[in-house]
Each structure stands twice: as structure tokens, then as C-alpha cells.
Amino acid sequence: MEKPDSTSYDPLTGLPEYSSFLLSARKLLPNLESGTRLGLSITRISNYRYINLHFGDEIIKQILLDFKTSILSDNPDILLSARVYEGILLCLLRLDHNISAKDCKNTITRLNQSFMKKYAVQKQLHVSLHTGFYIFDYSGQRIEQIVSNANLAMETAEQKQLICHAYDEKLDLQNLKEMDIIHRFPEALKNDEFQVFLQPKISAKTMKIAEAEALVRWFPKDGAVIYPNDFIGILEESGNIGTLDFHLYEKVFSYLYQRMEQDLPVVPISLNVSRRQLDNPDKFLRKIQALFEKYPIPPSFIELELTESLSMQDYDTAYKFMISLKNMHLKISMDDFGSGYSSISTLANLPIDILKLDKALLDEAEYFPKKRIIISTILDMAKSMELNTVCEGVETELQVDFLKEAGCDYLQGFYFSRPVDMETFNQLLEQDCA
Ligand code: C2E
Ligand code: CA
Ligand code: CA
């Protein structure tokens, strides 16, 4: 006697429900030959709720049934399919060995496009479809992992507004790494794992340390040091950068205050300001003010390094922000000048004191006369505008000689010193003063 079908079906589409899909996949997969090429696709009608609210149940039902007939039915390669919930549909296919992710992407894009076009033309209805898929050679993978990979690709397709996107292992690892940083951040802050390193800026006139830049280093309790390029961007995206910046600023204020109290040599220190601080400039200003109240040091000992991208994203806000900083007697340095898309016009209008030339400008300038012409011209222009100048990334004696000759005020780079911990920096200062 035939066993009754235990699959539960979705009443709207007649497709299996997700729980049944999982059960069937768990039975089916182990019976496949190892190495069988499979593909799992997840398609989402991203504006499902909108269509349902504005056009009603009937049209949604029609779209889902239509999708089932035109895309899911009559395809002999489909092993299993399901409706997960609302507008999410998935199917597992057996694929030919010579089919690549690119072939799949082309086919799915073409199918989705013609589906969307049909609704746009016949019903003046925009159906927004996004598909993520994962192609793999079967070797015992769990169905949950397969679905999760395709789902990540679908979410990426939605974020990037792509009709179709393939799962990419590198992207997944990157995502996991980012999640790990965000997850570990609060505990790391509590454990005091972030330290301020200082890199000297040398006066071209005296060749002594005139200032320093504060650069963060992360020393995890159980692992090697992590450099800012591996977490600053992630913390900017996740909205945590403000907390980290002020955690470090406080260390710098406290350091300067204690040194001054003890009459020890000190130099002004510049702090990096994340572009995200412009999301709430008033809060930033209040917190800086509070630091000056807690650690009463002269404002001339604090300089703020702002990047060009900060001033480019919202000019009016950036301008007001900078004026408020100037009113607090803080010096403003334009960081990374000459990297990416510099706009010389920002120089004309923004109240900056120091121009900091990006390392990329200086790289190998000793071998490229045109690079030297660019640097000299920028330095001349800055001088005419009464701006001080700093060149970062100074690595060779030839660069030092050229920059001194070209009239740069301060030099910063590995040639003089790498960023060092505060204690080592104090020793450098004391040697300079001796
Ligand atoms: P940045 O502000 O442009 O800092 C200069 C970077 O160049 C630093 O990298 C420094 O170590 C490096 N550097 C200095 N001299 C040389 C040199 O001669 N050769 C080479 N190859 N590199 C040199 P670092 O410390 O890894 O920082 C990277 C970026 O992370 C910084 O770029 C800055 O944008 C950001 N950052 C660092 N600390 C903080 C922080 O506390 N808050 C925020 N918001 N950003 C920070
Ligand atoms: Ca900087
Ligand atoms: Ca820089």
C-alpha cells in the first residue's frame, strides 16, 4: 500500500511548506551521489506587503501562482520547492556539471526580468523580485547551511538592488569577520583593550618633535594586535565609532593633563574625527567641552583631524561644525588631502588651519618629478593661504630633503618614528629636550 503523503502544503500556492521542504531535503540529499552539482535559489517579492495592502489578497495570490507556473513548474531539474512565508519562494535544482554561477545568474535574471515586465505592461504593477542562489557540488552539506548561504546572497541582492546575486564565500567570511568585531567591541572597551599610540610630527625647521597624532591600537586579551583599518570602518558602519573615539580622546586629555600637572614635556596632540561625528555635531561639541572641563588643558594642545570626505558629505553642516570648533579655539587639520577626490574649493571656504597631505601623494615622489611638482604647488598654495602643512608617510631621507626644500612645515612618517605607545613617546620627547 502506498504511504500517505506527509508533506504539508501551503494553501495559497499548493507548494510545500518550508518545514516539509526541510524534511524532504534531509531525506533526499544523502541519497545523491557525492559531487552532484546542485543549486538552491531563494526569491523574494520585496514589495509583497505593499502589494498586499494596496491591491489585496487576490492579486498577491495571482502573482504567487503565476510565479509557480512560469518559473517553478515544468522544470525537470527542480528537485524540491517551497513557499517559506509571504513572498519568499525557494527551489532546489540538480544542475549540469558545466553550469557555472554566471550561467545561473543570466538565466535567473532573464526569468525575473520577463516576469516583472509582464506585470508592469499588463497590470501596471511593479513586482520587485530579488533572487539569491548558491551553487555547490554536494558533499554532505546540511540543508540548513545551504539555505542560509542562498539567503545571504538574497539579502545582498536586496541591499545592492540587484535582480540576482550568487553566494560568495569570501563575502560570507568578510561578513562574519565584521559581525565578530561588532560583537566583541563592548567587552573589549570594558577590558580596556584599546590603546592610544602616538606618532611624532617633526618640525622641518628644528627637526625636533613638535606635535603628535593619536592612533588607536586594539590589543585583544587573547590575540595579536588589530590595526585600525580592520575595525574603524566596521565601527563607523555599526554606529559605535563615536564611543571609541571619545574613549581614546579621554585617554589623550588625561595624558596631557597629568604631564602638564607634573611639569613634564608635552606637545600638542591631534585626534582623528570620524565622519560619523557629523551625524550629531552638537553631541560631539558637548562631549569635547566636557573633556576640557574634566581635564583643564589649553585648547591649543588639541588639534582635530577631519577628512575631506567629512566636509564633502554635507557642506553646510560641516561648515557650522568647524566654526563651532574654531570658537572653542581648537585647531582644525584637513586630513588625507590629495587622496581620492580632493576638492580644492573646500580649501577656499572652510575654516581650516592645517593641510595634511596624504601619503599617496608622497609615495615614490623621489622618482617622479611630476609628483614633486604637485606637492610643491600644493605647499605653495597652502602657504599663500596661511595654512600650516604636514606631510604624512615620510619614509626616506630623499623625501625629507625634498619636503624641507619645498617648504613643508611638519613631517610625519616611519623615517622618524612609527606610532609608539605613550611611554615610548615620552622617552622620545625627553631625548629631544635633552
Ligand atoms: P590616518 O589618519 O591617515 O593615519 C595615518 C596612517 O598612516 C596611520 O595608520 C599611520 O600609522 C600610518 N603611517 C604613518 N606614517 C607612515 C609611513 O611612513 N609609512 C606608512 N606606510 N604608513 C604610515 P594607522 O595607525 O593604521 O591608522 C589608519 C587609519 O585609521 C588612520 O589614517 C585613521 O583614518 C584611522 N584611525 C586611526 N586611529 C583612529 C581613531 O582613534 N579614531 C578614528 N576615527 N580613526 C582612527
Ligand atoms: Ca589622521
Ligand atoms: Ca592621513
Protein architecture, described:
Strand 4, helix 5 and strand 5 form a beta-alpha-beta unit. Helix 2 crosses helix 3 and helix 8 packs parallel to helix 9. Helices cover 47% and strands 20% of the residues. The model has no long low-confidence stretch (mean pLDDT 93). It is elongated. It is of the alpha/beta class. It is built from 16 helices and 14 strands. The longest helix has 23 residues. Strands 6-7-8-9-10-11-12-13 form an eight-stranded mixed β-barrel, surrounded by four helices. The structure holds ligand C2E and calcium ion (2 copies). The site of one calcium ion has 5 residues, from strand 10.
Tell me about the largest β-sheet. 8 strands, mixed, barrel
The coarse silhouette is elongated
What binds here, in terms of ligands, is: ligand C2E, calcium ion
Uncertain regions: pLDDT < 50 for 5+ in a row?
A: none
Strand content: 15-25%
What value does the Rg take, in angstroms?
30 Å
The portion of residues assigned to helices is 40-55%
Number of helices: 16
How would you write the strand order of the largest sheet?
A: 6-7-8-9-10-11-12-13
Distance linking N and C termini: 99 Å
How many E strands?
14
Helix vs. strand class: alpha/beta
Q: Overall pLDDT, averaged?
A: 93
Q: What is the N-to-C order of secondary-structure elements (H for helix, E for strand)?
A: HEHHEEHEHEHEEHHEHEHHEHEHHEHEEH
